[in-house]
Each structure stands twice: as structure tokens, then as C-alpha cells.
Amino acid sequence: MKNNVKKAIAGIAIVSSACAVFAAAKFSARKSISVLSREDGSGTRSAFVELFGIEKKVAGGIKVDYTTDEAAITNSTAVMMANVACDRYAIGYISLGSLNNSVKAVKIDGADACVSNIDNGSYKISRPFNIVVRDGISDAARDFVSFISSREGQSVIAANNYIKVPSTKAFVSNNASGKVVVAGSSSVSPVMEKLVEAYRSHNENVRIELQTSDSTTGIANAMSGTCDIGMASRSLKQTERAGGVYEIAIAVDGIAVIVNKENPVGNLSREQVEKIFTGEYTKWSSVSR
Sorted alphabetically, which keywords does the UniProt record give (predicted)? Predict the structure, then answer.
């Protein structure tokens, strides 16, 4: 099993020194690929390894994540982007909705990573954004959930480069008051911040606390009641459903495979991505021909 990594990146401390080193040289395809992945528990990692065939079933139907042991582990979307931006030999993956001009998203099988291509089916690397709740949540939590699923909430989703879920219902607040804790996925968190901001104009009496971690933690916290609403960038497992929670789809998001802006590689096949992240390809020359 190859998900026991040898290196871990917990912050952005290495970025400044890395930038200084790489600024002095030009890109060379003979150099080693710096593979960056996400931590165990990340919904983005779970979806990524499944969609690219990096996770495989072995005897007994057990799923094994074959991410190379040489992958450096980043603990958030922001850290992933920061390190790819400063390492011209790095490759990683992030939520498409979080993509900015500090890094470059490569085409996958010739299709650009964009909302329109997810919508038309040509870019196939996508996954759901879900919120996770228990029965019997507070009136304040129900009001915010209703807003997210409403026409107004879904307009926020669409405005932030995600594919909205169908909704024709206008939001009508129940005028609840109180505190709502929303916790989980760092991929869902950026658009959740936008939703929280938009919701305030509809109900100022609810205070929403946003806690960012990962999908598994968000789901576990929803199950235990530590938070009112969990954020997950993957579907629930059967064992989690058995814990008394259910999911509500709030958006569809793509996963962008990202490289440094100075990297001339602009298109990769799904097979090439798999071989990079399982360690079969270790030099950029393997995909630069």
C-alpha cells in the first residue's frame, strides 16, 4: 500500500526559499517531477484517486490508494497552490472553483478544465460538493440549508465557477436566530464563505461559524453533533450514512490538475496523470515528448 508518504508539507514555510532557487533556472524536462497530493481524509484526494484510477481494488474488494510514497502532502487547497506556484517541476490538484492565475491547469485528454466543459461532458474530472446534516437540526441551521438550496443560494454557486444544482424555489427565511457551526472540506469552504456572506442580507440574526478542515472530519463532526452542517467534497460512505447523517448536493465541482506556469506541458491524458501519481513516471521528459 502506497499511501504512507515519506514527506509532508504542513504549511507554506518552504515556499520563499523554493521560489528563490527556481527563479534562477529554466525549465528542464530532464528534471524529476515533484508530486504533491492531499492528506488522508481529504475529499478532493478521495475523488482524485478514484477518477484517475490511482485507487484500485485488490483481493476481497478492498480499495487501495497507490499514490507514490514520494508524494509530498499538503493539508489544504491554499498550501497546494502556493507550493505549485513556486516549484516549476511540481504537479498537484485542486478544486476547479479555487483555481487562480498563480498556477496553470492542464487540459485532460484535450479538454480544458472549465465549467462549460464539465457541463457538456467533455471534461470528466468532476465530483459533488455536499453538505451533511442530521435530522432535527436547529431552526437556524435549517434556514441556512434552505438558503443554500434556493434560487438565491444557487446563484452564488454559479457566480463562483461551480455548476449549480437545479432550483426554482425562491428563498423565504424562517427568521430564526442563533449560532450555526459549519465544518469540513477546505475545497468547499471558499464557496461556503460566499454563501455565508450572501445569507447575511436575508437573516442577520443567525451567526455562522466556519471551520475548515477536511471532508472526513466535517462528516464525523456532523455525525457527533460537534457541528450543525458538515462540508464534504465527496459522497458519503455507507458506514457514515449508518451514523445518522445524510447528504444534500449543493454543487458540482471539477478537479483541476495544476502545474507551475513556467511548465510547458499543457495537456495530459488520464493515463499519464495516473502514472505520474503512482510513481511510474518520475521525469517530465516522460510526458514532454
Answer: Signal
